[in-house]
Amino acid sequence: MTTSHIAVMTREVMDLLQPRSGGRYLDGTLGGGTHAEELLKASAPDGRVLSLDVDLKAIERAQTRLAAYEGRWKVVEENFRHLDRVATEHGMVPLDGILLDLGFSSDELADPTKGLSFLKDGPLDMRFGPKANDDGLTAADIVNSWTEDEIERILRMFGEERYARRYAHGVIQARRASRIIGTLDLVAVIQKATPGSRRTLKDGARQIHPATRTFQALRIVVNDEFESLKQAIVASAKVLRPGGRLAIITFHSLEDRIVKEAFHGEGWRAITKKPLVPSDDEIRVNPRSRSAKLRVAERVE
Ligand SMILES: C[S@@+](CC[C@H](N)C(=O)[O-])C[C@H]1O[C@@H](n2cnc3c(N)ncnc32)[C@H](O)[C@@H]1O
To answer: Which atom of ligand 1 lies closest to the CA of 78?
Structure first.
């Protein structure tokens, strides 16, 4: 199986990470493997790349794609929040560069067993993989056992959902009748709680599905995305050489804020004063890249 994921801002990432032969690089979010392959090509003939992902299917796919780089490329099923430990175990310290391309891949969105899509029926899981969180929490656990207030809070905070209160209430009412098991069960609850005139929401000029923001909020919580990101930045500082660079691509304004604040803090020198965004051409070819922001910082003593 080949990947359907189109990597974002590849040229900008390479320009700023400046991979070189003999260098050591960590790709914390393997996904379809495009960024990993570019790092491998740019660091030929002897640069090394260590990739991490929590999604076993992504790992299997990339093992085929990147087979030609055996000896220079390794992949480990691990959460990037532990990248310092994994890099040390694999003899990659000090690192010259680290890339985190956050969120999920198109392959994961298309995989109904992950439950990430509100257009396909699947289990309400939403974990990118078994190691995506420490406690095995799934989206089904949240909608079936968290309180109305807790659900409202995460929809508001991580989804910026204007109907957070209505949707949280709808979930509580629905689960009194029966457990909410599948993605389309949850979509039906949301549809029912959405005011008739708003069943197709407008986001700027775009029409978005009423379940978009709820699914986003649940996914962020289930995968503990913001906490993992904070831990990965701290971990990166421990294993990058002075002058080594950390590049992070975010897709959510709160994530970008975490990166921005960290990069303006102690131990880092921001290389990108403002985040880089994809060109109009890239957005035309890959509309999913629209909300991407790239920031890069250099490790200082
Ligand atoms: C946007 S995709 C990366 C695409 C990749 N850069 C490429 O070139 O195709 C994000 C990937 O990161 C993985 N991921 C998300 N959170 C993770 C975490 N905390 N630890 C490890 N992998 C993670 C997802 O499973 C997904 O495969």
So the answer is: 21
Which one, of 87, 86, 45, 91, lies nearest residue 68 by Cα?
45
Residue 5 lies in a domain: no
Residue at 51 is within a domain: yes
The CATH number of the domain where 169 resides is what? Answer: 1.10.150.170
pLDDT one-digit tens code per residue, 51-107? 999 999 999 999 999 999 999 999 999 999 999 999 999 999 999 999 999 999 999
Domain encompassing residue 240? 10-103+225-299
Is there a binding annotation on residue 53?
Answer: yes
**45 alpha carbon – ligand 1 mean position (Å):** 26
Question: What does DSSP say about strands 293-299 and 240-250: parallel, antiparallel, or unpaired?
Answer: antiparallel
**Among positive and negative, which fits the CA dihedral 171, 174, 176, 181?**
negative
20 and 46 share one domain: yes
